[in-house]
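Researcher: Let's try something more involved. This one mixes different molecule types, so please make sure each is placed in the same coordinate frame as the others.
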Amino acid sequence: MTAFLSAPNPGGLYTDPFWHWVIVVVGMLLVLFALLTASAYTVWFERVALGRMQRRPGPNRVGPFGLMQLAADGVKLAFKESFAPRGVDSILYVLAPGIMVVAALLSWAVIPVGIWYGFSYWIANLNIGILLILAVSSMNAYAILLGGWSSNNKYSLLGGLRAAAQLISYEMALGLSLVPIFMIVGSLRLQNISTYLVHAGPVGLPLIVVAPVSFLIYIISAVAETNRTPFDLPEAEQELIGGYLTEYSGLKFVAFYLGEYINMITVATLATLIFLAGWQGPFLPPIFWFFIKVVAFLFMYIWLRTTFPRLRYDMLMRLGWKFLLPLALANVVVTAVVVVAVT
Amino acid sequence: MAAKRQNIFQDVAALAVGLRTTLAEAFRPITTVSYPEEKSPRSQRYRGRHYLRRYENGLERCIGCELCSAACPVGCILVIAAENTEEHRVSPGERYAKVYEINMLRCIFCGYCEEACPVQAIVLGPEYELSDVSREKFIYTKDMLLEPDPRSGQQEPVRVGLR
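Model: All components are placed in one shared frame. Result:
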């Protein structure tokens, strides 16, 4: 197995013209299955963690420790009546959740997952990996905007517009926060970035040590990109009933909901691959380190949700444009100067 | 307690205090009472399901005076009295309650019937788990409300609020 899947020169079965495609398709199905299960259990983890931080148990009746709660919720939502309100643009109404799911899942084509010593797995080894992820995650703006507009509802439209403005504001800070990383590592290929270690003497350190400001900007922008509290004005229940989600129910709602959680997992995975040295760690096998780091990130997301009140819309835009963007630009300039000075 | 916001470090410190508070709360015990396994404690005078009491010698206390029915703010008690005869004596007094029904769906468990009763016949006990499957079953008749004869040795249902 190791022979055909390790990088950068996979030999053996992987290069055979027929088996290559069989392996790729099987890999895609595996990743799809793993990701859907992971996002369902991320929702479980969020409900339990939110509950505990509010001194209550979270779901604990359906299955042991409430683990089957999401299966029950999924079945319930799947059996709901699939309707479209009067006056919706029927193509876009159905397409918007589809775009959300596609955009969420497409990023996983280039993400490498370290599984065992010397053996890591990915679907495509792209030399511009991160650029693809940034580009594909911009499609979320389409999903939300089209969903809000096609719902034929004032509040959905407002929610969709706010969401689109929020997403495009924080996209630039997100991309710029990763530019110092590209400068330090010298490559956009995720396989290279995730195995890169900053060497300070004999010890290899993760990239967060040399790019802490990048990490901070990345966290804030990523939370804004995935529409999570404190930046979840687009789906604020108190202000906008449900924002762009108001008119969706049943499986289309599941698509939006799971798309949001898959985006969260993607962001958490990228943060571990880029800033926290991916799956490398002292004693445990790589898959455990990878899992632990991603779960720590997801916990941070949930922790932020429990603690902070929502940002008002003008505060949100002010933070994105007047604080994060100049900070990210300054970060790029300083890192560039330091990199040139050191080499 | 005005929050001082002179510089950005204090703002960030305020954010950190918030995060620390929620994380500390995560390690404190949960306050939820997991219902069927644990139940909330009830006081001595808790007003639950009604009981019709008897005297020690087995005679029923209820004398069919219908004061409970008059006192009930909702009107959920139905009492039809009948005369005690020497052969068939149910209560120590002239009358007894031949029909005694309480509509538990209307009852608001206020305890006015218990306060109005002159012989402490109707009392409200601690039992509150009264779910059932049809509306007809919620009309509790006298045999459902009457507690067992103390001379028969049957286990008495738990009662509180004795006077």
